[in-house]
Design a protein that fits this description.
Shape: flat
Strand content: 15-25%
Strand order of the largest sheet: 6-8-9-11-10
Number of helices: 22
Radius of gyration: 33 Å
Distance between the termini: 71 Å
Oligomer: single chain
C-alpha cells in the first residue's frame, strides 16, 4: 500500500488555495468595496501562511505574512482596497507559487521588489524587507497608540487525533502570543495512565489569558483551521478579572506536552484547508460525523485513473472477443454469461468515462488572470465572459487545450479588440468583450472564443498569403478557405512583433493541437463586429461507441456520434450516380465518397451497398460501404509514427478476433466530401 508524501499533499492543497486567492483577487478588481471578498482573500492568505509554516515552508510563510497583514488592514478599514493593491498581491501570488514549487531555490531580490510594490500600494506603512528569507513568522510590533487593550480568557482542547492529522497545538499558542501579552496554563488531567497512553494522541487542553489591542476576530483567525473538530471558549474579561485569572506561564508544563509535540506526523493524512466564517463555542462534533465529512471526497492521482482506463480498455477488448465466441456457439448458458458481461463492462466503461470528465470551468478559470494582465499591458478595457462552464470534457482534452486557448485569447485581444479611443470613435462601448463558451453537440464539445472587435481583414490575409507563397496571386478561394490561412506556419498579419503576437507561431500550434485531438476549427468573422473561432473536440480520447463497417475485405470504425443515418444504395442507383456522387436526401443533395475507391481495395462492390451519412456541425457527407456489421465499443489506440501523416484515419482499435480495424477521421472525410462537391459545382 502506497503512502502519500505530506509535502506533496501540501503542494496540491496550496495550489488550490492559491487558485482561490487569485479568483478572489480578480473578483475584487470589479468590486473593491466588497467586504466578503476581502475577508475571503484574507482567509486564503492566512490559510496558506499557517499551512506553509506547519510543513516547513518558512520562506513562503514569512512572505505571505506581509500580504496577509496588508489585507488585515483593509479588513479593519485602515486602508482602502485599490486596484494597485490587488495588482501587487496578484504579482506576489506568483512568487508564492514559486516558493511552494521551489522552496530552496535562489529567488534573488524578487521578494523585496514585490514587498516594495505592496508597501507602496498600502501607503508605505507595511513592514517589508527580508521576507524572501526563511525566517519565523512573527507579527509586526505595533507602534505606541491609544488603542484600548482588551483581555480575553481562551480555553480550548483539540481532538485526540489532531497531531496525527498535522495540527501542531504549540503553533496555535505561538500565534496567540503574537497577538499580545499571553499567559498559558496546560491542563493535563485528561492524560491516561502510562499503560493506556498513545504517544500520537493529544489529551491536553489549555487555558490562556490574552491582553491585546486586537479584537475577537483576530483570535478567531488563529483557530481557523481546526474549528470544526475542537472545543473553544472565548470570554472577554475585565482588567481585575484578568489579573485574577492569569495562570502560571507554561514553563512548568508537564512532560507529556513535550512528548506530544514531538510525536511523529503520519505521512498518510494532512490537515485539510477549511476556511470557516463563524466560531463555535464548546462545539462537539461526533467522530462518525467528522469521518463521514472526510470521506465525501477522495483525492486520486491522475496517473491511477489513466492506468484504470487502460485496464477497462483491455476488458472491453476481451469482452468483444467473448461476444464473438458466444455468437458462434449454440450454448445458451455461454450466451447468457456473455450478455451479462457485456452489460457490466459497458456500465464500467461509462462509469470510468465519468470519472475522467472534468468541467471546462477548470480551464476557463485560468484566463481571468491572463485577461487581467493583458488589459493592464495593452491599455485596453476588456471584459471576459464565460458560458457553459459546467460542460464536461475528458481530462486529457482539458490538459491539451490549455495552450491553444491561450494563443486564441491573446490573438483576440491583440488583433481583434480595438483601443478604447477607436471603439468609441466607431460607436462601440469603451470596453471590449471576449467570450469563452462551451457546449456539447453529440459526441463533440464545441469551445468558442468570440470577440466584438474589428474582425479579420480579408484583404490583408490574402496579401500576406500571396507574398508568402501560400497561394497564387488571384487564386479563387472560398471565405472559409481564406480564413483558414491564418493557421499556416509562420503566418501573421501583424505589422510589428510584440510580446503578444507577430511571430506567426501561435495559430499554427492551435491547428496542430486540435488536429492531434481529432478535432476541427471553424472561423466566422464579420468586419467591424468581431470574430469567433470554434474548436470541435471529441468528448473523450479513450473509448467511444463506433459503427463497424466493411469495405472490400477490410473493416473500419466510424465514430457513432457522427453518424446521422444509414441508407441502402442499390447497384442501379450507384451506376446512375457515377460522375456526380450525390444522393437526394429529403429534398437536399448530399455528396458521398466511395470508400472502396478511396482505399483502392481492388474489389467489386456488393450488390446492396450502404451509405452511412455522417456530419460535423452543419456539413454532411455520405460514405459508401459494402456492409454495416453493427455497433462496437471502440478502444482507441494511437497510430504509429509511420502513419501519422495518413489524414483519413484518426486511430485504430483491436477487434474481438484480434484483428485491427482503422478508425475513420470524420472531419477529414467531411472536408473531402465538401471539396468534391465544390469541384463538381464549378465543373457543372
Amino acid at each position: 500500500m502506497s503512502t502519500l508524501d505530506p509535502v506533496a499533499v501540501f503542494r496540491t492543497e496550496a495550489a488550490e488555495c492559491l487558485e482561490a486567492i487569485e479568483a478572489g483577487l480578480l473578483d475584487l478588481t470589479h468590486q473593491l468595496d466588497n467586504k466578503d471578498l476581502v475577508d475571503a482573500v484574507f482567509r486564503g492568505l492566512h490559510t496558506l501562511k499557517g499551512s506553509g509554516a506547519m510543513f516547513g515552508f518558512e520562506a513562503l510563510a514569512a512572505f505571505t505574512h506581509h500580504c496577509e497583514t496588508a489585507f488585515d488592514r483593509v479588513r479593519k478599514g485602515e486602508v482602502a482596497a485599490t486596484s494597485e493593491l490587488v495588482a501587487a498581491v496578484l504579482a506576489a501570488q506568483d512568487h508564492m507559487r514559486a516558493l511552494v514549487d521551489q522552496p530552496d531555490a535562489d529567488h534573488g531580490d524578487t521578494g523585496h521588489k514585490l514587498l516594495a510594490q505592496l508597501q507602496a500600494a498600502v501607503g508605505g506603512k507595511e513592514a517589508a524587507p527580508a521576507a524572501s528569507a526563511a525566517i519565523p513568522v512573527t507579527a509586526a510590533v505595533p507602534e505606541a497608540s491609544a488603542k484600548k487593550k482588551n483581555s480575553w480568557r481562551i480555553r480550548f482542547s483539540l481532538p485526540a487525533n489532531s497531531m496525527a492529522n498535522g495540527t501542531n497545538p504549540l503553533g496555535l499558542l505561538d500565534e496567540l502570543r503574537d497577538l499580545g501579552e499571553c499567559t498559558v496554563r496546560a491542563n493535563s488531567s485528561a492524560i491516561p495512565p502510562l499503560d493506556e497512553f498513545t504517544p500520537t494522541e493529544l489529551h491536553i487542553s489549555w487555558d490562556v489569558t490574552l491582553t491585546s489591542e486586537q479584537d475577537r476576530s483576530a483570535i478567531d483567525d488563529v483557530f481557523i483551521f481546526v474549528l470544526d473538530d475542537m472545543e473553544l471558549s472565548v470570554e472577554e474579561i475585565s482588567g481585575q478579572a484578568a489579573a485574577t485569572a492569569a495562570p502560571v506561564e507554561e514553563k512548568a508544563a508537564p512532560a507529556p506536552v513535550a512528548a506530544a509535540s514531538a510525536a511523529p506526523v503520519s505521512p498518510t493524512t494532512v490537515a485539510e484547508f477549511r476556511p470557516v466564517e463563524a466560531v463555535p463555542v464548546k462545539r462537539e462534533v461526533p467522530a462518525a460525523v467528522s469521518q463521514a465529512k472526510a470521506a465525501e471526497n477522495v483525492r486520486v492521482p491522475a496517473e491511477r485513473l489513466d492506468e484504470l482506463m487502460d485496464r477497462v480498455g483491455e476488458l472491453v477488448i476481451a469482452q468483444s472477443r467473448l461476444s464473438q465466441l458466444a455468437s458462434a456457439s449454440t450454448d445458451i448458458a455461454l450466451r447468457s454469461v456473455s450478455e451479462e458481461i457485456e452489460r457490466l463492462s459497458g456500465e464500467l466503461r461509462d462509469t470510468m468515462m465519468v470519472l475522467r470528465m472534468v468541467p471546462v470551468a477548470t480551464l476557463f478559470s485560468r484566463f481571468r488572470r491572463l485577461v487581467h494582465d493583458l488589459a493592464r499591458e495593452t491599455g485596453k478595457v476588456i471584459e471576459l465572459v464565460t458560458e457553459g462552464e459546467s460542460t464536461e470534457v475528458d481530462k486529457t482534452v482539458i490538459e491539451r487545450l490549455a495552450d491553444p486557448l491561450v494563443h486564441l485569447v491573446r490573438n483576440s485581444i491583440d488583433h481583434g479588440l480595438e483601443t478604447p479611443a477607436d471603439r468609441l470613435a466607431s460607436g462601440k462601448s469603451e470596453a471590449g468583450t471576449v467570450t469563452l463558451s462551451a457546449r456539447q453537440a453529440g459526441g463533440e464539445v464545441i469551445i468558442s472564443i468570440k470577440d466584438d472587435g474589428r474582425g479579420i481583414n480579408r484583404e490583408r490575409v490574402r496579401a500576406k498569403a500571396e507574398s508568402s507563397g501560400l497561394i497564387q496571386p488571384g487564386q479563387p478561394l472560398s471565405d472559409s478557405e481564406l480564413l483558414q490561412l491564418i493557421f499556416a506556419p509562420g503566418f501573421s498579419t501583424a505589422a510589428a512583433i510584440t510580446n503578444l503576437s507577430g511571430r506567426g507561431v501561435g495559430m499554427d500550434v492551435v491547428k496542430k493541437t486540435v488536429e492531434a485531438l481529432r478535432g476541427a476549427i471553424d472561423i466566422v468573422s464579420v468586419p467591424g463586429q468581431g470574430s469567433e473561432v470554434s474548436l470541435r473536440i471529441p468528448l473523450t480520447l479513450a473509448i467511444i461507441d463506433g459503427l463497424l463497417v466493411r469495405v472490400g475485405s477490410g473493416r473500419y470504425v466510424i465514430p457513432l456520434s457522427a453518424v446521422e443515418e444509414c441508407l441502402e444504395l442499390s447497384l442501379e442507383e450507384d451506376l446512375r450516380s457515377r460522375g456526380r456522387s450525390f444522393i437526394s436526401l429529403r429534398d437536399s443533395l448530399v455528396p458521398f465518397l466511395r470508400l472502396r475507391d478511396l482505399f483502392r481495395t481492388g474489389t467489386k462492390p456488393d450488390v446492396h451497398q450502404k451509405v452511412v451519412v455522417i456530419s460535423t456541425g452543419t456539413e454532411r457527407v455520405g460514405l459508401v460501404v459494402d456492409q454495416i456489421i453493427g455497433d462496437h465499443q471502440t478502444v482507441i489506440k494511437s497510430m504509429s509514427k509511420l502513419h501519422n501523416n495518413v489524414a483519413t484515419f484518426s486511430g485504430a482499435t483491436i477487434l474481438g478476433d484480434g484483428s485491427v480495424a482503422l478508425i475513420l477521421d470524420v472531419g477529414h472525410l467531411v472536408a473531402a466530401g465538401q471539396q468534391q462537391e465544390a469541384q463538381l459545382r464549378v465543373a457543372g
